[in-house]
Amino acid sequence: MKPYLFLLFCCLSVSLFGQTAPDSTYRSDFTMEDVSFKSVGVTLAGTIFKPKVTYAALVLVHGSGQEKRMVGVASLLARNGIAVLTYDKRGVGKSGGVYAGPEVGTNNIDSLNLNLLGLDASAAVNALLAHMPANHGPLGLMGFSQAGWVIPLAAKNNSNVNFMVLFSGPVVTTLEQLRFQFYTEGKSNFWETHTEAEAREHTRNDPDRYQFTDTDPRDALIALSVRGLWLFGGKDVQIPVLLSIENLNVLKAQGKAYEYRLFPELAHNTAIPKSQEPISIAIKWIKTIIWVELIEK
To answer: Which of 24, 257, 267, 274 could form a disulfide linkage to 235, CB 3.0–4.6 angstroms apart?
Structure first.
């Protein structure tokens, strides 16, 4: 297996994103409905979580890996008045199609795969919309890690998307991310022995070990007119965070409604710290969109 095929971002914690059933204590706060929908010739399977009172709605988009439905985070969002569609990734669980990733010897960040996953997420948005009442509130996409490339592609393809929330989503090209990850080797103590300047130099200029069609999320982000929130960990060794923030600031200077929060002591898994501060901030941010939309109307 080629080394670049090992490009798999850190797995998200089972405690929040695992497949266990929601706590029965909270099941009265929302209902669950299994659904299926078509995307690029296959049928994808998922579950819609509907709160009693819905303020907003979103589709959860996977990080890398053989990811099934993210029941834990969907339950948390539903308890906070956010309707959710979470689905098994293409080729995983009950979803049809072919999964691409290092476990099966293929490249999960090839542009063909990322674009395909973007079309799947866009189809999921349409499926959720078909099951929601007219007054569902803003509709968006929330994702993790690899979704930093997938979500902008999906949002560009679907005018129904009003907002994006990305946990540790790269705002660099796939090749830049790969150079960075080769350099850090995923070592948790990387930032104790290296400087940002060294990492930046390597990420920008190191020769690429492999050749495949690159994906730059900024190509889609510059074309979008939706709101976006990125949540980063300062000790991330999977994506170059400060370079991603620099790129976001350029987009913000061009008038894009993109925001970010940096948590200096967190690493790549910004969605699952013990304090759950980032996910709480994300929920509050989504709810502010409702008021902004009301004011603008």
So the answer is: 267
